[in-house]
Amino acid sequence: MGQPMHKLCWEQSIQVDHIICLECGQPLQLLSHRHLTRHSLTPTTYKRKYHIPQTQSLSSRSLRLRRQQLAICCRTSA
Ligand SMILES: [Zn+2]
């Protein structure tokens, strides 16, 4: 199967037209509360677990925003 999802930082999980669930690696249009309950998580606990700002929406992003996030992402790891 694929690569371990924990290697993906959350900024990279939010794509232009989909968001990848960091728990199961499934691409989704929207990381819904309903989906997160399968992992015994809520949007709040999911964001806390992956250090995602609470203000971040768990849905796909525009390309412009994605580029900004990737630039931040690769500098702040470790
Ligand atoms: Zn999932």
Number of helices: 4
Query: What is the CATH C level class, in words?
Result: Mainly Alpha
The span between the termini is 26 Å
CATH superfamily heading: ROS/MUCR transcriptional regulator protein
Q: What is the alpha-carbon Rg in Å?
A: 12 Å
Report strand order across the widest sheet.
1-2
- What's the helical proportion of residues? 25-40%
SSE sequence, one letter per element: HEEHHH
- CATH fold type: Arc Repressor Mutant, subunit A
What structural class should be given to the helix and strand makeup?
Answer: mainly alpha
Tally of DSSP β-strands: 2
Tell me the number of structural domains: 1
What's the gist of this structure?
This protein has 78 residues and is mainly alpha-helical. It has helices at 10-13, 33-37, 43-49, 63-76, and strands at residues 19-20, 27-28.
Topology diagram in text:
Layout: H1 10-13, E1 19-20, E2 27-28, H2 33-37, H3 43-49, H4 63-76
Antiparallel strand pairs: 1-2
The protein binds zinc ion.
Residues 21, 23-24, 26, 35, 39 line the site of zinc ion (ZN).
